[in-house]
Amino acid sequence: MFDLQFLADAFPVILESLGTTLWVTIASCALAVVLGFMLEILRRSSRQFGFVFRFVTDFIRSTPILVQIYFLYFVLPQFGVTLPALVIGVFSLGLYYSAYLAEVFKAGIDAVPRGQTEAAQSLGLRWTDQVVRVIMPQMLRHIAAPMGNYFVSLLKATPYLAVIAVPEMLGAALELGSDTFRYAEPMVATEIIFLVLAIGIAQLVRVLEIRMMRSAKR
Amino acid sequence: MKHEQAAAASGPAVAISGLNKWYGKYHALRDVNLTVAAGETIVICGPSGSGKSTLIRCINGLEQHHQGTIVANGLTVGEDARTMREIRKNTGMVFQHFNLFPHLTALQNCTLALTRVRGYGRAEAERIAQNFLERVRMGDHIRKYPSQLSGGQQQRVAIARSLCMKPRIMLFDEPTSALDPEMIKEVLDVMRTLAQDGMTMICVTHEMGFAREVADRVVFMDGGTIVEEAPPAEFFSAPRHERSQRFLAQLLH
User: Fold this and answer.
1) Residue-number span of the structural domain to which A30 is assigned
2) CB contact under 8 A, B89 and A124
3) Which candidate, B157, B178, B160, B179, places its Cα nearest to that of B170?
4) What torsion do the CA atoms of A29, A31, A36, A37 make, to the nearest 10 degrees?
5) CB of B35 less than 8 A from some CB of A
6) Which tens digit of pLDDT belongs to each residue from B74-120?
7) Minimal CA separation from A116 to chain B, in Å
8) Among A156, A184, A167, A200, which residue's Cα sits nearest to residue A15?
């Protein structure tokens, strides 16, 4: 029988790991944004080596994230690189989503008319200023929504890290399950927490988007 | 008379020699030679696809040429990134579609390069920008975004944005082609004043009235070459080349 009392008791236990889940999500998102932007810039600006970075993103997107996590966790130590599971977790999620975000950035940059870059160039702006002052602010409007989707998706991918014993929420729920031989309540509690978080992030992104649209219409 | 002033400055503003450019197999510019003295106003005209825009876009390196040399204010175009930036700092460009930055106000459009390229502080940059916006009679609209301005107003802001940099050469790439007829005049008026003030200007335009009145020389291009080069009075009354005659005849219809 489903035990509501046990469900209620499960929440505080699992919420103890909420911090880890959020921390991993935020760090991975940040890494994914930085890496993704770099990948896209490298793909489009390097004539000789562009294909290398295109292959990298295709490779990352076309292989299962679980395999990538296991790979980094078990194979890196063989090369003498031993990192805490948490770091491996953030790195693998960040890397995986960077490949998707690179596509989002590509669409975002393509959406800014060519004339904008030309105007920036003809004013003598440095390349970094062209990107930061002219391209990025205009691109943000186009990419806010898809980027938000990937942030939610990344949040929901954090339970993968349970397999390398990162103490996030699914790990806590599984532990509670194996301690009590009751899995239904911990799993339902975990689902509810993720649901609330995901809807929260989605709402936040929507608010930001509406705000940006409003300023775009000025 | 502005020629005398110009002669005082050393060397031509722009010297183009033996310029060739291809788009794949298409020969876009063929052995173009053109010298523009400081203070001169040149109008480049010709049928579409004749290479006029490509030519002026080569001057500030928005297009790369394949053969020949372009020297702008004593610097060779295409030498290295640093030279290119130096050339662009001193060469303003006005585009057909204005290309104002939509996320910035008229004032911010003008101050961006002043602060980021010229290194002015914000207050000083705003003072300079305000001054130039007033000169193009946009002083009442400095806090507006491009989307709140008409085409003619946007183009005048774009001209001010370039002028803020105190360029020694101004390139105009069909500045009135995207404008409604009633807005063309306000832009041409600004350009006329600029020419009278002695700015070196190279204008690609179909405004033959402007050419007749303001240009020191009209350059007629067809098929990627300069077919004819003459003072406007001569070009409009007695074009030498058969292709120029045909072009002018079409314009009259």
Assistant:
1) 4-217
2) yes
3) B160
4) 110
5) no
6) 999 998 989 999 999 999 999 999 999 999 999 999 999 999 999 99
7) 6
8) A167
Q: Each residue of A52-106: pLDDT tens digit?
A: 999 999 999 999 999 999 999 999 899 988 899 999 999 999 999 999 999 999 9
How far, rounded to the nearest angstrom, does the alpha carbon of residue B109 sit from its chain's CA centroid?
A: 18
Amino acid (one-letter) located at B135 = R
Contacts of B166 in chain A (CB under 8 A): none
Residues of B in contact with A218 (CB under 8 A): 145, 147-148
Expressed in angstroms, the distance from the first to the final Cα of chain B is: 34
Locus of tokens 């992104």? A205
Q: Which residues from A are below 8 Å from B114, CB to CB?
A: none
**Closest to B145 (Cβ–Cβ): which among A113, A138, A218?**
A218
| Residue whose token pair is 């079409």 | B250
Q: Which of B10, B9, B11, B14 is nearest to B68 (CA)?
A: B14
- Residue A75 sits in a domain whose CATH number is 1.10.3720.10
HEC sequence for chain B: CHHHHHHHCCCCCEEEEEEEEEECCEEEEEEEEEEECCCCEEEEECCCCCCHHHHHHHHCCCCCCCEEEEEECCEECCCCHHHHHHHHHCEEEECCCCCCCCCCCHHHHHHHHHHHCCCCCHHHHHHHHHHHHHHCCCHHHCCCCHHHCCHHHHHHHHHHHHHCCCCCEEEEECCCCCCCHHHHHHHHHHHHHHHHCCCEEEEECCCHHHHHHHCCEEEEEECCEEEEEECHHHHHHCCCCHHHHHHHHHHHC
pLDDT value at residue B250: 87
CA distance B171 to B162: 10
Point out the residue among B62, B89, B148 whose CB comes nearest to the CB of A118.
B62
Measuring CA to CA, which residue among B217, B179, B29 is closest to residue B98?
Answer: B179
Sign of dihedral through CA atoms B132, B136, B137, B139?
Answer: negative
The Cα B21–Cα B32 span in angstroms is: 10
Our CA-based measurement puts residue A121 at a distance from the nearest CA of chain B, in whole angstroms, of: 7
Q: How far apart are CA B157 and CA B94, in angstroms?
A: 10
Please list every residue in chain A whose beta carbon sits closer than 8 Å to the beta carbon of residue B165: 123-124
pLDDT value, residue B189: 95
Q: Domain total for chain A?
A: 1
